[in-house]
Amino acid sequence: MSAGRRPIARPAGLLAAALLALASLLARVPGPMAHEVRPAYLALTETAPGLFDVLFKTPMVGDMRLALHVELPASAQAVSPVLSRRSDDALVQSWRVRARDGLEGQVVGVAGLDASLSDALLRVEFADGRSVVERLTPSRPKATIPARPSRLDVAATYLPLGVEHILTGVDHLLFVFGLMLLTRGNRRLVMAITAFTVAHSITLAAATLGYVHAPQRPVEAVIALSIAFVALEAAHARQGREGLGARAPWIVAFLFGLLHGFGFAGALSETGLPEGHIPIALLFFNVGVEAGQLLFVTAVLGVGAAIASTRLPIPRWAALAPPYAVGSLAMFWVFQRLSSF
């Protein structure tokens, strides 16, 4: 039976036509932002008692940067000039300060965050090996640096980081959406999503702990290629030509999930893991990723069911629209990321 005569057999297929407009919008997102919306990043590293190297990365869109500035305690005075350089999609500033009262118990923040839609990651590393990681938000642009973070503090920081990373990682979400287009039946979908979860959890842990390493830019290019592959498999399946992806989507999900784990590890490596609480931080970051992924899958299925219940007259050829849209966007990312090598 030809593609033009095949009915759309499940809510995800009905939803796909509606998401075509969204895919067209995403295609206009600049390349560096297509992978994920990165927050600002502030790192203070103690090199001697009371002496801290400051690194501040501010996101940029084109030649414009967010109007964000570091707020340090009044006892912290700059002892070197501020050096600025452009790095990919961020402005990187570095300088040195002397905090005569130290930073334990002091308030550190990012001015201007409350007037933006961005978050900021704050990392303070002390000379004795202790480290503190805080997530600053528009509603909480400042944080008090504790002497020693508790396990609960670590969990409360890394859980939302994981959720934020997956929900702002457009390419990871499109891969999951591609799996939803590719699979038929809830049982196969659960198996595919589970396989993807297990696989990226393995490489996330291995890469974050330093057991394996993969260069980030090639990884991001191949991640885009993985999206194109599942989109192609979905298109073939809807034309009656099922390949390996449609027959055993859990295999494809597991193999490419290993690759996506390196992408998650790249984001986590920028934040770092707190000394003494590495297992807790890694566990709750991964739990956050899975929670965000579950929210996305639930939302897609819910919207798809709502569209199906309206019984709108959707053309039968619309079944091919989403895999072609997702695949086209993915190939655009492939060539764009290859050109940045």
UniProtKB/TrEMBL annotation:
<feature type="transmembrane region" description="Helical">
    <location>
        <begin position="189"/>
        <end position="212"/>
    </location>
</feature>
<keyword id="KW-0812">Transmembrane</keyword>
<feature type="transmembrane region" description="Helical">
    <location>
        <begin position="248"/>
        <end position="268"/>
    </location>
</feature>
<feature type="transmembrane region" description="Helical">
    <location>
        <begin position="218"/>
        <end position="236"/>
    </location>
</feature>
<dbReference type="InterPro" id="IPR032809">
    <property type="entry name" value="Put_HupE_UreJ"/>
</dbReference>
<dbReference type="Pfam" id="PF13795">
    <property type="entry name" value="HupE_UreJ_2"/>
</dbReference>
<protein>
    <submittedName>
        <fullName>HupE/UreJ family protein</fullName>
    </submittedName>
</protein>
<feature type="transmembrane region" description="Helical">
    <location>
        <begin position="317"/>
        <end position="335"/>
    </location>
</feature>
<feature type="transmembrane region" description="Helical">
    <location>
        <begin position="280"/>
        <end position="305"/>
    </location>
</feature>
<keyword id="KW-0472">Membrane</keyword>
<keyword id="KW-1133">Transmembrane helix</keyword>
